[in-house]
Amino acid sequence: MRHYDAIVIGAGQAGTPLCRKLAESGLKTALIEKRWVGGTCVNDGCSPTKAMVASAKAAWSARHNETLGVSVGGITIDFDEILDRKNSIVHTMRGSSEKRILNTAGLDLIYGTARFTGRKEVTVSLKDGGSETLTADKFFLNTGLQPVIPDIEGIHSIPYLTSTTIMELSEIPEHLLILGSGYIALEFGQMFARFGSKVTIVERAKRILKKEDEDIAEEVVKILAREDIEILTNTEAIQFAQSGHIIAVALETEGRRSQRSYTHVLVAAGRKPQLQELGLETAGVALDKKGYIQVNAQLEATAEGVYALGDVKGGPAFTHVSYDDYRLIIQHVVEQKQISIADRLVPYCMFMDPQLGRVGITEQEARERGFDIKVAVLKNDSVARSIETGDERGMMKAIVDAQTGKILGAAVLAEQGGEIVTILQMAMIGGITYQQIRNGVFAHPTYAESLNNLFMTLD
Ligand SMILES: Cc1cc2nc3c(=O)[nH]c(=O)nc-3n(C[C@H](O)[C@H](O)[C@H](O)COP(=O)(O)OP(=O)(O)OC[C@H]3O[C@@H](n4cnc5c(N)ncnc54)[C@H](O)[C@@H]3O)c2cc1C
Ligand SMILES: NC(=O)c1ccc[n+]([C@@H]2O[C@H](COP(=O)([O-])OP(=O)(O)OC[C@H]3O[C@@H](n4cnc5c(N)ncnc54)[C@H](O)[C@@H]3O)[C@@H](O)[C@H]2O)c1
Q1: pTM for this predicted structure
Q2: I want to staple 386 with a disulfide (CB 3.0 to 4.6 A). Which of 46, 242, 355, 380 is the partner?
Q3: Residue 225's closest CA among 263, 193, 249, 252?
């Protein structure tokens, strides 16, 4: 039986860099991955979707450019070309990541599914057949999330799509029904609408983007409505049936039933921890109330020598969080430093177009918590850069501490909203007040300069 100093399970956004750093620090390390190096982000998530979103944006721009006085005539979507480009990006990223692992001394890459068969022992069902049992002093779990498939009558009798399988379609759906209205639903919904699908989004809650402020969510709805995307809120799919190429769906909106037909169904109703194969009970690792691996602020699970990183430990499920978990674990385990994930400032960006960049708390959260705040709001139709470039969609918003002038949170729904919100995040990190940003000299006419105007609204 092979023994290691450290075993990393899951080659996600934490596990992939972590295994190399552990090995480079002198620990004999194994990385166990059941599918591909790079995990969700590289293979099924961020990179492939953003590559396809870029194609969708190009299609939108080609149509939209007429408003700028430039007509390119009819446009054609070459879906095979879009998929080839996406696949080539994924293969390059995955390949170079795998190569770096294979070239690291003291590190073994083992393809297979790991299951705990003892407190400090895993048995790997190898991808190429057979199995191997390994032991280690320390385990690092980075097994990620998987789509939730709601228990709806008939759902397993239809060829429903998930965020993974929709990227393998060989044709553009004629009429796509999307269950859920989170990031996955909105990014794919707008993307396929721009490729030519008719898109209907069904959300069972009373509005989309519940965690965002209502004015931001309303602005997103307006933008999507202009692209003929139908959004049905307070609505649930209660029954599915397949009839030839058509999927018949019974919907229920506030007690009223209706019958609709679609060609494709994407389930984007949330994601859950990928743990069913791991046998955590055997390792003595407890789960929290929501079914994620329970960790403390040092990312330690309830069993000694076991750590959990990334999405599987709960909290915001983003690549940059998983990557930061890796950075912190290295400081803790290799450099013997104190670490804590408490109070970590986590930004995020929804890559619909325009992007929704977010950081810190929302207005609704600040009010619920009784904070003394000022709220700055600026619609993009009064931003010089937006007017000049012909894209006035969206708005900017910042929540400011009324006493100190410090920024508590921001939302930027704009072309490059993810980049613009990062400027405000830097201000939050550096303790820069809104008055300093209001009076800062920024190049004209940039989006950054509009932050002067955003905070002038507080005067
Ligand atoms: C469609 C989509 C788009 C997204 N877009 C963005 C975005 O734009 N920006 C962003 O920040 N985040 C985005 N995310 C989220 C992001 O992909 C994840 O937060 C990120 O990948 C971090 O995941 P992770 O490191 O926790 O694990 P993952 O990347 O999910 O990796 C887990 C790995 O563990 C392996 N594994 C699981 N169980 C076992 C086992 N028993 N044995 C061996 N191996 C196992 C899996 O095969 C997988 O490779 C997106 C997600 C999706 C689905
Ligand atoms: N740009 C990004 O950073 C990005 C992009 C995509 C995904 N992600 C990550 O992936 C995670 C999962 O995304 P998601 O969109 O699947 O989940 P989500 O949890 O964000 O949204 C799911 C939505 O589906 C609704 N819902 C649940 N069951 C339903 C049902 N039966 N019928 C209708 N609606 C239903 C929920 O009310 C919720 O609004 C995100 O939270 C995020 O962390 C990030």
Answers
A1: 0.97
A2: 380
A3: 193
